[in-house]
Write a structure and sequence with these properties.
By secondary structure, this protein is an alpha/beta fold. Helices cover 21% and strands 39% of the residues. The longest helix is centred in the N-terminal third of the chain and has 13 residues, at 12-24.
């Protein structure tokens, strides 16, 4: 249902470098870019970083999180590891969450935006 998500950034070049490397882990490539935005896609939905339209500083939304659905626990582990190598901040290492086959890892990007990489068997 969701076509794309954008995360605010104050440093487009730094965010671009972070997400180029991180999202390459899951087969995503830059879809487009301009002076305010960079967007990636792996053929389905997309993720972008954007300098806010109103010209004010980008801030982290409290309670906002982007979930990246992956095909296996190994892909969750690999993406989390790559995020940590790139300077992301840990918000919960890979592992099972609750019951019912939900395996996830949580981290914050260089701007403080929260992401969840997960694999669900249900």
């Amino acid at each position: 249902m969701i076509g794309h998500v954008t995360l605010g950034t104050n440093d487009l070049a730094l965010s671009g470098k972070f997400y180029d490397t991180l999202l390459a882990q899951i087969g995503a490539k830059r879809l487009f870019e301009n002076e305010r935005t960079i967007a990636w896609s792996n053929g389905g939905s997309g993720l972008g970083v954007i300098k806010p339209f109103d010209g004010k500083a980008a801030t982290v939304g409290n309670g906002v999180m982007v979930g990246l659905s992956l095909e296996s626990q190994e892909k969750v582990d690999a993406l989390y590891k790559k995020a940590m190598e790139l300077g992301a901040r840990d918000e919960g290492p890979p592992g099972p969450r609750g019951t019912g086959g939900f395996y996830a890892a949580y981290f914050r990007d260089l701007e403080g935006n929260k992401l969840c990489a997960y694999f669900a068997t249900r």
